[in-house]
């Protein structure tokens, strides 16, 4: 993966920031009981710590591209890192649940700015032959963060303090700001375009209602059984998003342009990628729970059992580009997607009696196919887009990622709760995890059906440009 030195430096700095964001989200779930105990409140009462961040980030996402064009991408990215870092420090110093929730809202505002603008900066002006390498670096935070977060959160909460979950972000954020200020070239603010207020309110409101409802389902399943409120919230969000999509298609200056969907490769990669990412994000949520509840492991050892999964993600990066050049996007997405779906479904038969060799092999196959799929999806999404559509595509990709992340946890939690409820159990058993993995595998299989719509030569220009350079 031979990127130009300047492009590699900028992309690595941005990837480090993205890793900080993803890790911050995944590390917190295992730390909520410790935070609640230190604050003297029930763990359930602190679910707002998770939800507040997601809702704030969702509300800011549609506005990020406009702000980047209005004030400059570099300036807004540095502002986002600064806001996120300062809010992380204040989260770590919070003395009451109210203070913590408030600072998580501020953290979410910074995070909502970073996701789309960072991707735009990394891809801005990139040569076609560099796109695969850039996307491979940008994907690793989404792959590794959910795997490393739970065990790291357990270790910090058990042997240090929950406050370090937030304080760890401070040196990373400061270092990232220093490197980004040095490496990222200054960009001039663009010609101001009118702010599409109806589109902004519709997109922000729809995303907030939808993701908020999904989080409500996933974090409050015990209380939500038999109640319609969380599902009504999801339905209201979907209805408002449907209106917003119609508005954005007609608006003269939409807050988020839908023009990237005119390219078949972007449309298929985004729709199929959302389905695949839902399954991929659900798996690291379900596996540690299976190891603890189904196999009797403690939180730390359950996290350690994911190491083969993590190693396969990392090892796959060395062969991703040659595989894409050899076979092309469509065959790779079909093959990796099918392997990923089958391996996720295979976890339905894992229990305490499963041989270690078989379990490790399954984790390696699942991790490798997951890595291959996500790199190919993210690269294909921008492979055929002109430079002027990168800002819109980055915002749409960030929205897709946010939705898929929330959906991945919600689908797993919902199936576990429903299956346990139907069997009259208060807590999930191995059989309930079997149902959850099978349902999640269906999402991955639906993504494969989407990838079948791709043309055989989809994204060929990027691969050919890289092959000529090699």
Automatic annotation (TrEMBL):
The entry's keywords: Membrane, Transmembrane, Transmembrane helix
GO molecular function, one term: transmembrane transporter activity
SUPFAM superfamilies in the cross-refs: MFS general substrate transporter
Pfam families (UniProt xref): MFS_1 (PF07690)
Domain of life: Bacteria
Main location, first listed in the record: membrane
Keyword Membrane set for record: yes
GO cellular component: plasma membrane
Keyword Transmembrane helix found: yes
Name of this chain's protein: Major facilitator transporter
Species this protein is from: Roseateles depolymerans
């Amino acid at each position: 993966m031979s990127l130009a030195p300047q492009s590699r430096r900028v992309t690595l700095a941005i990837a480090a920031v993205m890793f900080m964001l993803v890790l911050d989200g995944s590390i917190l779930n295992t730390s909520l009981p410790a935070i609640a105990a230190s604050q003297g409140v029930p763990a359930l009462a602190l679910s707002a710590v998770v939800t507040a961040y997601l809702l704030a980030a969702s509300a800011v996402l549609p506005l990020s591209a406009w702000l980047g064009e209005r004030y400059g991408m570099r300036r807004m990215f540095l502002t986002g890192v600064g806001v996120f870092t300062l809010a992380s420090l204040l989260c770590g110093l919070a003395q009451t649940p109210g203070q913590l929730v408030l600072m998580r809202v501020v953290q979410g505002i910074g995070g909502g700015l970073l996701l789309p603008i960072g991707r735009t900066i990394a891809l801005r002006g990139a040569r076609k032959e560099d796109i695969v390498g850039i996307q491979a670096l940008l994907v690793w935070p989404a792959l590794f963060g959910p795997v490393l977060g739970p065990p790291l959160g357990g270790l910090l909460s058990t042997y240090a303090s929950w406050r370090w979950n937030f304080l760890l972000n401070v040196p990373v954020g400061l270092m990232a700001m220093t490197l980004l200020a040095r490496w990222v070239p200054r960009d001039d603010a663009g010609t101001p375009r009118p702010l599409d207020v109806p589109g902004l309110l519709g997109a922000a409101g729809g995303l907030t209602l939808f993701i908020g409802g999904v989080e409500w389902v996933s974090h409050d399943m015990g209380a939500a059984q038999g109640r319609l409120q969380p599902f009504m919230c999801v339905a209201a969000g979907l209805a408002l998003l449907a209106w917003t999509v119609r508005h954005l298609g007609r608006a003269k200056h939409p807050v988020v342009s839908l023009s990237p969907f005119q390219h078949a490769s972007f449309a298929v990669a985004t729709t199929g990628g959302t389905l695949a990412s839902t399954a991929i994000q659900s798996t690291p949520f379900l596996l540690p729970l299976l190891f603890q509840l189904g196999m009797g492991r403690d939180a730390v050892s359950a996290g350690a059992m994911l190491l083969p999964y993590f190693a396969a993600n990392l090892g796959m990066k060395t062969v991703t580009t040659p595989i894409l050049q050899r076979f092309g996007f469509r065959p790779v997405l079909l093959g990796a997607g099918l392997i990923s779906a089958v391996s996720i479904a295979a976890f339905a038969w894992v229990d305490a009696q499963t041989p270690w060799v078989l379990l490790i092999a399954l984790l390696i196959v699942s991790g490798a196919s997951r890595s291959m799929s996500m790199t190919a999806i993210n690269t294909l999404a921008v492979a055929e887009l002109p430079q002027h559509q990168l800002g819109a595509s980055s915002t749409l990709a960030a929205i897709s990622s946010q939705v898929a992340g929330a959906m991945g946890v919600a689908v797993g939690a919902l199936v576990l709760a429903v299956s346990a409820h139907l069997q009259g159990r208060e807590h999930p058993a191995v059989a309930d995890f079997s149902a959850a993995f099978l349902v999640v595998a269906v999402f991955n299989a639906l993504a494969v059906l989407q990838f079948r719509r791709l043309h055989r030569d989809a994204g060929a220009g990027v691969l050919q440009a890289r092959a000529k350079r090699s």
